[in-house]
C-alpha cells in the first residue's frame, strides 16, 4: 500500500463493519474513492447526519430521529401489547413483516454468562416499569430461540410475574417454506407438540 | 422499517459498496448507529477527509493525498521501468507484495467492446508519452490474464512498438501453493511451455 494514512484509516474503519473483512474493506474504499461525487461524499454526509440526528428512544429503545420514536408516537398502534425484542434489528425485521401493531421494547441484548451480560446491562427496569402501567395487558417475549434468548425469556417471565399481564412467546413450529427433512429435531418436536386442527 | 428516511438513505448508500447487499447494509448501518462514537463519526470524518484530500496522480493515476503520488515522488524507485496495471487496486496489490520497485501507470480499465470501453476511455496517451521519455527502458504490461486484459495488452504492445522500449508481460505458470490437479488447461500448457531448469 502506498496511498498514505488517510486511505489506511478508511480501510481500517470500513473493515469493522459486519460483513466486511480487511480485503473487502479495501475494495470498498477503492470503490468509494472512484465514485467520490456519487457515493463517497453522500455517504460521509449521510453518516454525519444520522450520527447527529438519530438517537435511542427513551421509551422503547428503538433508533429514530425523534424521541419518542415513530412507533411510540403512532396513535393507531395498540398500547395494550408490548413486544420485547433483543435488538433494534429484530424490531425492524418485525416491522418489515408488518407482523405486529403494538408497542416494542428493545432489551439491548440477552443475558449471557459467557459474555458477562447481566440484567443490569439490559433495559429490564424500563420493561418492568412499562409492564406495570394500567393499559398494558400482554407482554410478548419475542427473543431469539437460542439458549441465551430463552434463558433471558425465563428470567423476564419471572421478573414480570408480579405485574398483572399475560406473558406470551412466539410460536415454535415449521417455518413457512420449510422442508421437514432439513429441520432439526427440536423444531420438529415442538411442531408436533403444538399441532393444531388442519 | 420505521426509523425514517435518514436510516433508509444510509442503508441505500452502504448497499452500493462492493460486498454489501441490502441485507448486510442494514446490519452495517445498525452496527454503525450502535457504535456512534467509536465507528460512525470517525467513519464519516475519514470519508469526508479522504474525499477532500485524495485525488488521482496526474502522472501515474494512483490515488494519493499528494500529486505526484508517493510512488512517483520516491527517488529510490527505478525510473527506467513502468508497470502498466488496470486499476489502482492492482497497483496496491503489487505494492503489498513488494513485487516491483519501478514506476506504475494505471490505465483505469481495459478495452471492452461489451462495456463500450475504447482506447479514448483509458489513460493510453499518457502511457505513450511516458514511454517516449529517454530514461524509460522497459514497459511491463501487468494486466489481468482475462480476455479483455490480454486484448488490451496486445493493443498497447502495438501502440508502443514505435517507442524504443522493451515490452514485457508477467510470467504464466503454476501459482505458488497451486495443485496441478486443480489448475486449468491453459495454465498447465503455459507452465509447460515456459518450463525452466530445476
Q: Keywords for this structure?
A:
198 residues, alpha/beta, Helicase, Ruva Protein, domain 3, Dna Topoisomerase Vi A Subunit, Chain: A, domain 2, 4-stranded parallel sheet, 8 helices, 6 strands, 13% strand
**Coarse structural class of chain A:** alpha/beta
The total count of helices of chain A amounts to: 8
Helix content bin of chain A = 40-55%
What portion of residues of chain A belong to β-strands? 5-15%
Specify the CATH architecture of the domain at 77-169 in chain A: 3-Layer(aba) Sandwich
Element order of chain A: H for helix, E for strand: HHHEEHEHEHEHEH
What is the β-strand count of chain A? 6
The main β sheet of chain A shows up as:
4 strands, parallel
CATH class of the domain at 77-169 in chain A: Alpha Beta
Poorly predicted runs of 5 or more residues of chain A: none
The CATH topology of the domain at 77-169 in chain A corresponds to Dna Topoisomerase Vi A Subunit, Chain: A, domain 2
Give structural notes.
The structure is a homodimer of 198-residue chains. Chain A is 43% helix and 13% strand. Chain A is α/β, with parallel strands linked by helices and 198 residues long. Among the domains of chain A are: 9-53, Helicase, Ruva Protein, domain 3 (Orthogonal Bundle); 77-169, Dna Topoisomerase Vi A Subunit, Chain: A, domain 2. In chain A, the strands form two sheets. Chain A has a four-stranded parallel sheet with strand order 4-3-5-6. In chain A, strands 1-2 form a two-stranded antiparallel sheet. The longest helix of chain A is centred in the first third of the chain and has 18 residues, at 36-53. At the A-B interface, α1, α2, α3, β2 and α5 of A face α1, α2, α3, β2 and α5 of B.
